[in-house]
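User: quick one - fold this with 1-deoxy-D-xylulose-5-phosphate bound?
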Amino acid sequence: MAALLSVNLNAIAMLRNRRDLPWPSVTGIGRIALAAGASGLTVHPRPDQRHIRFSDLAPIRELIDAEFPHAEFNIEGYPSADFLELVAEHRPEQVTLVPDDPAQATSDHGWDFRAHRAMLTDVCSRLHDEGFRVSLFADGVPDREALEIARAVGADRIELYTGPYGGTHADEAAAERIAGELGRTAEIAGALGLGVNAGHDLTVDNLPRLVRHIQALAEVSIGHGLTADALEYGMAETVRRFRRACGQTVD
Ligand SMILES: CC(=O)[C@@H](O)[C@H](O)COP(=O)(O)O
Ligand SMILES: NCC(=O)COP(=O)(O)O
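Assistant: Sure. Structure tokens for the protein plus 1-deoxy-D-xylulose-5-phosphate:
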């Protein structure tokens, strides 16, 4: 099975923000990614707007609606009141809830579903009322009980946090072990009716193993490694390389 690829634009926005100038253009690069066959665009607007700015969201929504109506907009973040307002305004196809602290450099863990059950139930219900698919960034390798709670709070999907997997790039045995654990978790999640996404520190090299272990991987969202490759190969060619690594057939 092939996974869909959503291109995370945070790293492009971070490069743009080095100067008070509009390039590289977040929507311009997003357009190249979608034209090369990415299935969607992901943004993770952090409260300090150090990467994606809140003002980036409307043009990305417009780009998708006007030129790529089958693509998906995925907005990630901590469900603060401000975040939920942004989501309501820019109407993504998918909202991925992440337990980030504003001081974090990047996401380094997912939800403990047991500890945040009440809050997640409330937020998932609100997001469903507004018509959004909800994915919950999952901590570690969740066990069956944690996955049952994720389902019970109303998640449509979970996103497996692949930071520890990405960190094994020099260690084949560790990579195989973690991919196997994630694969078994994904199977349980699927049996409970949860879709499975994955993300963080994925690369063109580590994706094929993950795709092999997670039969029903719906989508991967990738920013850092993909942007690094785009400097070398260009965005369009990079998207094609990552799509192949996702198991997609690419002309
Ligand atoms: C939720 C997640 O996994 C992150 O990878 C995130 O979207 C990346 O965010 P930054 O690019 O801001 O580090
Ligand atoms: N959800 C993960 C994501 O969007 C991108 O993470 P990374 O590839 O920038 O580590």
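One thing worth noting: Residues 172-191 form the longest helix (20 residues).
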